[in-house]
Each structure stands twice: as C-alpha cells, then as structure tokens.
Amino acid sequence: MTMRHLHLLISCLVFLGLSPAQGRDLRPKPSTAAQSQTAILAGYFWDMDAAFDKSGASQAFWFSKDFPPLRLTFSEGGDAFAENACNSLNWKFTVIGSEKISFRSTVATAMGCNEELTRRENAVRREIPQTHRYTLKATSATEPERLTFYLADGSRWEFKPTPTPETRYGGPGQQIELEIAMDTVPCEPGSTQQCLSARQVRWERNTSKVCLSDWEVLKSGVEGYRPTPGRHEIIWVKAYPLNRVSSKTSGSAYVFLGVHVSVIPSLKKLPDCSPPATR
Which terminus of the chain, N or C, has fewer Cβ atoms within 10 Å? Predict the structure, then answer.
C-alpha cells in the first residue's frame, strides 16, 4: 500500500466517524453454540462415572470405595477445576463450537497425598490438556444428561451432572455469615425432631461493631455443614432466596462454604445496628 492509498483510507474512516483502530474489530467472538455450551457446563458439577482406554477397556483405577469420584467444575468466565484428585487443579478452558474444547494449565495446590490419589492427580494433570473433543448429551436444551471427553491418546472419560446451587435455586447466592447455636432446638413447637438455630452476623465496616439478626430455626439445615455437638461456630454460607424457585415459598436455602470462627462465646446483640440485609 502506497502512502497515497494509506492517506485515502484514513480520510474515508474519518469521514465515517471512525478512527483507524475502530475500522475493523479483528478479535474473534465466541459463537452462540459455544456460549450456550459453556453456560451448561458451568451450571453443573460433573462427576466421573466411567473411563475407557483407547481399546475400550474400562480404567478401574479411577474409582475407589475410599474416595469420591473425580469432579470437574466450570465457570462461565473460562475457569475449570478438578476436585477429589489430591490437590485442587485449575485450568483455563475454551469451547469452540459445539464439540471442540481446549484446556490450558494455570495453578494447583501442592500437598502430599497417598499413592492412589497421587496417581489420579498425575493422570488428570497429564490428560486434561490433551482433551480435544467433547460431546454433551442432553434430555432438553438446558438439561444435560452426560458429558464425554475424548482424549488425544484415544481414551474417553464420561461424567454425570449434578445441578449447582445456582442452577437449583434460580440464580446466584449471597455470601453471608451465620452464628450457629451450640444446642439444637425443636423444628416445630412440641416436635421431637431437632434443628439448627442460627442468626446472621454482620461486621460493620470501619467499626468494631457486630450486628446480629434474630435467631431463626433452620428447618432444612445448611447444605454440606455437619455441626459438632457442643460446638458453637460462625460459618460462611451462600444464601439463596427460595422465592425465585416458587413465589409461594419464603426464606432462604443455605449452602456451607467454610468455618470462620469455632468455639466462641455467644455474641451479644447490639440495639443500635442497622437492619440486616434481606436474604
């Protein structure tokens, strides 16, 4: 291109109200199919329930009565994680169309494990980046039934889906803290069935003030949390409003994230705290 042609091109772009850099966006955009598939992958936990080598023989070493199966999770932002393989492993992944997928290793924790989990971890580290194709069998446009990875060496891994809390409860949850009472209480007045008693804890910003909601009975408990009898704790949870699932249902479902403080004296409620956030 001569300088005369270049000046002519720039003049045309200016006439159209565009800078030279705005004339054409060359960055690839994700396809609709890839975006849809990524959203489905991110909406479920994927637990391995079958694995075969290139000859079709089952790879039994993946499965053990002592450990849960390998679990993969995905985010819509392009992160993939492997659990139940000794260390927690992380990759960046890209879906291309409806069948191509690629993984790029990023970080992992580094703790020692027994021989069985170490073998599983080494296989995951080695093979996941070699995945070059996948299929997603579904019962409907939004309900997957099975995920299959096809690896470069001819082997394949199959995973069954379990909906994430965000999928089950219709959207993202809010991370909050709950104070769990040391003693359980009757789930209903006069009932012999026992339930957790909890209240929300909020730490006021820029002050040392601790604000507390009223105690409430958690009839459905906290998913994933196992209280220790006689132990008083503050825990992190994700709270999911139940009215997103059914307009006739109130309250929240709670999913356990971790323990913040264990074995503490009961907190004292202050009268001048602002109302707690709506859950």
Answer: N
pTM metric for this prediction: 0.76
Which amino acid, residue 236? W
* CATH number for the segment(s) 32-163: 2.40.128.270
Instruction: Going residue by residue through the chain, which has 279 residues, state the pLDDT in tens, using 9 for 90 and above.
Output: 554 444 444 444 444 444 444 444 433 455 677 888 899 999 999 999 999 999 999 999 899 888 999 999 999 999 999 999 888 889 999 998 888 999 998 766 667 788 888 889 989 999 999 998 999 988 776 678 899 999 999 999 999 999 999 999 999 999 999 999 988 999 999 999 999 999 999 987 776 778 889 999 999 999 999 987 778 899 999 999 998 877 777 789 999 999 988 766 666 665 556 655 544
Backbone CA torsion sign across 230, 234, 238, 239: positive
**Domain limits, the chain:** 32-163, 174-262
